[in-house]
Write a structure and sequence with these properties.
Elements (H helix, E strand, L loop, with lengths): L2 H20 L5 H22 L5 H22 L2 H19 L1 H24 L1 H6 L8 H4 L4 H4 L6 H21 L5 H23 L3 H34 L6 H33 L6 H35 L13 H9 L1
Helix pairs in contact: 1-2, 1-3, 1-14, 2-3, 4-12, 4-13, 5-10, 5-11, 9-10, 9-11, 9-12, 10-11, 11-12, 11-13
Length: about 350
Amino acid sequence: MDTDAYSWAHQRSWYRLDQLVRQRKLSGAEADELVRLYRAASQQLAKLQGHHPDPELVSGLSALLARARGRVLAARSQPWREAGRFFTRHFPAAVYRAWPWWVAVTAIFLAVSTVIAVLVDNSAATRKALGIPEGDTSIITGPGGAFETYYSEHPNDAFAAQVWTHNSWVSAIALFTGVLILPAVYALFMNALNLGITGGLMSDAGRLESFFGFILPHGTLELTALFVAGGVGLKLGWTLVDPGRRSRAAAVARQGRVTATVALGLVVVLLVCGLIEGFVTPSPLPAPVRIAVGFAAETLFLFYVFGLGRRVAEEQDATAATPAALPDPADRWLPSAQKSLDRA
């Protein structure tokens, strides 16, 4: 390897790294860029050291990396600031980038649930095939039946915690079994089946108003979180099938990190769902008010993803696509690269 040519090819990114290290304050995008350039420069230094480069080049680049490491560690030593960056940059951008997957999951899930509900409502053969006993179902669907009392039979705080734990587990299954595709599809189908059966039975009993009055306050955001989990999980599985331009291992590792980011963020989203289901859904508030709370939470989440998440994703793409400024020839930590330029 021609170490002079190699160092010259990468000096723009080294110079940009030096600029970021010297800069007093960094924006969120600049902090992400600093980490990315630091990792790349570390790999480049390791490659150079295996080919006996100019000692001055190694020394200068090592010094730069030492200063960059200190800046990166200083930024990461502030957990609240890092948590803020996670929820204002990493999580919304990750969910936004996966939107075609989870929007497709949303459409298919709702279509399947609707078909099942219609069949359960109108077909005795379907109810028999699904193992639903014939006869009076008012113990489930009637006023004060099992469907309604499910939301009020436990203390609000305990029920909210129970719902949060259950939904987090279901979402985790959809996310992390997505790498195998079929288990995630099965988990999503079973949830669609349960929703469809319940909706069909309530429709058959003439109580759709009650069904939507209890489902929509928390279910709107809760189901969206499940759809996001399923979509991102399936995207992870498809990355294993079609890694694109990267190697399969690198592509899956990268998408796996994205999946972990979404999983952490959804824990908080599902906590909000649990609080709504525990305190708003069983409350004595009129159904339109309870549904309005659910729609408000859903609207905020969608604005968070398609507003903030889209802007952050576009910033990240622009940063990755924009070349850094040419280095100052007087920089002393790139002597070998400068000599190569002078010879050219």
